[in-house]
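> forwarded from #structure-qc
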């Protein structure tokens, strides 16, 4: 049974920072590709950043330079450091995992099998 639980969201001022965490369990492949997505009401769920088991990461252009993704296999956790936040970053942020290791061409929500419930980030 795979479980992903996000934390770290909340209200933040424009220009501020937040660190998102995702604690996971039940993933049997150490190198599962994992990702942060965000969901803005009325819009499709979009990938923010993804990382494979070796630590290779891909960050989408709209947050490049402001979002850092990392993971700790020992702690079974995925992290997302968000800096220089803007109002348009307001969204529900979700942790996701694929059943396989590669991340390179997988940026669509349908490519990910496991999902957390999300943590709300509100920038004002």
């Amino acid at each position: 049974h795979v479980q992903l639980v996000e934390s770290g969201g909340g209200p933040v001022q424009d220009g501020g920072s937040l660190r998102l965490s995702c604690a996971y369990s039940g993933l049997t492949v150490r190198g599962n590709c994992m990702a942060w997505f965000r969901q803005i009401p009325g819009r499709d769920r979009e990938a923010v950043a993804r990382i494979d088991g070796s630590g290779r990461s891909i960050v989408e252009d709209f947050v490049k330079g402001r979002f850092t993704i990392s993971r700790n296999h020992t702690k079974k956790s995925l992290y997302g450091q968000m800096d220089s936040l803007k109002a348009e970053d307001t969204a529900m942020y979700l942790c996701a995992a694929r059943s396989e290791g590669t991340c390179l061409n997988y940026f669509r929500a349908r490519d990910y099998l496991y999902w957390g419930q999300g943590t709300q980030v509100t920038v004002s």
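QC bot note: Residues 40 and 91 are 5 Å apart (CA to CA). The mean pLDDT is 95.
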